[in-house]
Amino acid sequence: MKSTADLRAFQRVMMGALVRPLGSATAAGAGFIKPNSRLTALERLEIYHRMYWFRLIDSVTDDSPGLASLLGEAKFDRLVRAYLAKYPSQSFTLRNLCARLAPFIREEPRWTAPHTALAHAVARFEWAQTVAYDGEERPLLAPAAIAGVPPARLRLVLQPCLSLLALDFPVDDFVMAVRQRDTLRAEASNAPAGAARRRVRRVAPPGRGRIYVAVFRVRGRLHYLRLAPAGFRILEAIRAGRSLAEAVAAGGRVRPAQVEEWFATWMKFGWFGTAAPRARSGSPLP
Amino acid sequence: MPANRFNGHTSHGIGIGLRVPHYAHILEQRPVVGWFEIISENFMVDGGRPLEILDRILEQYHVVQHGVSMYFGSADKPDRAHLKKLKQLVRRTRTPWVSDHLCWGSVDGTYTHDLLPMPYTFAAARRTAEKIRQVRDFLGVPICVENVSSYAEFHVSEMTEWEFLTEVVEQADCGILLDVNNIYVSSQNHGFDPYDYLNGIPAERVGQMHVAGHTRFEKYILDTHDHPVLDPVWKLYAHATRRCGVTATLLEWDDKIPSFDEVHHEALKANEFIADAGEDFNRKIGKVGKNPDSPSRSSRPSC
């Protein structure tokens, strides 16, 4: 090994050996590893191979208790393995590990059939919880800042940590029933995973039923709120950058008093923030 | 070293890792603790409860950042988004130094979230040192790199682990977070004398130490962080402290986490081992304030 290119080549081979499916018999990376008097090269590699998979499966399980409950341990395990094989982590933090899980469920329905639609809804709701938990929250919009601005010119900004979901199943109550306590994902220093696998809590799955729901946080705690279809349309339009007048029009025929009441509630929950500052460029980075 | 340029000239004493199950106790009871080490990645978020908790902790305690995903040893360049978030956190915590591991864990943008051992080659040492310097210059705080526990060795290695560690930190001119438990675990897994390791590193560069528990299996030891510190590790710690001086020390307990008081009590056991060691070290350095084990070096204000 004489160069960074050699180091990269070495690391690519080792990475290939680690991310290969659990149970695979051979791995090219074992050729790099010295055996000792107690373990073969492959056995030493397998320590890391298993830790890789257990750590990531545990992390997805922590963030997806509703999906695990819906599918049961064995089926959920197969889903997660297939997901991670197709979409290994591309982020420095485990927080983002489930970002593509809902789209994956749609892409490969065989892992969740015959509950694919419900599983997709649950995965979307649980990802929204992750976003709500530690996503960005802009400073609250002060009513004085928009006083006097005509509705046709006023463009409000929804909090980035607020998710708006239209779902074909009432998964909000289902997930909350599964997630009895406010679990927190946390990365540990140098500690291996897999020593204590999580137990999956089973709750009866919901039947089909259209809901509109907002997932958000208030003072650090997760909340969800069912929305009327018209309210959902108004908020979607605001998120799309439409003016307040356009957004209210998108809601359809709704009593003005009802719209006022909704906005009062949304303001109370802090759903409107100030606009994000423009990104600056030019900071020196390696 | 009690205080040196690698730990921001601080003397933090004995600390413990800030962990979720202890949040309520710490915020309500406000126990006296030397300092808390946080896992940087748990707080490199855009908002929410993690940062609210952190801000409340920062109001009352010294906090030092410890990372698990910078991967100094990965061939890839440092990730731009990662560095920017880390710098934001450094500004928030005012950490006197930042530590992360002497390992790799990602390639071509794919992350293992593990701390993988390095091939101990000169080419790998050069690349690793270069990345440490880049990260340090961007963050503007001293860096300490931590030796990891390992379960595999590579045919391609050209030196011992402690020679590799020394090569890297000398080239990068950075500090060492000496994990005594990791030395013990690796010594058992690879069959070397852990005291050779301790005696082979540049003691004057040690800015912090870690102690932790591990688990012995039939054919290897795993660094589980789910037990009290075992006697052989405390003995190594005492030796490390005699060699390096009384250094900021942190107990890691990451799984099967007991009560705050139990973890804190375990951490404070370090005092039993550093009292004599500190006297030995002071006798060694005498009046000139230099470690005779180490070559003479000029002091710079920051790492």
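Residues 281-286 of chain A have pLDDT under 50 and may be disordered.
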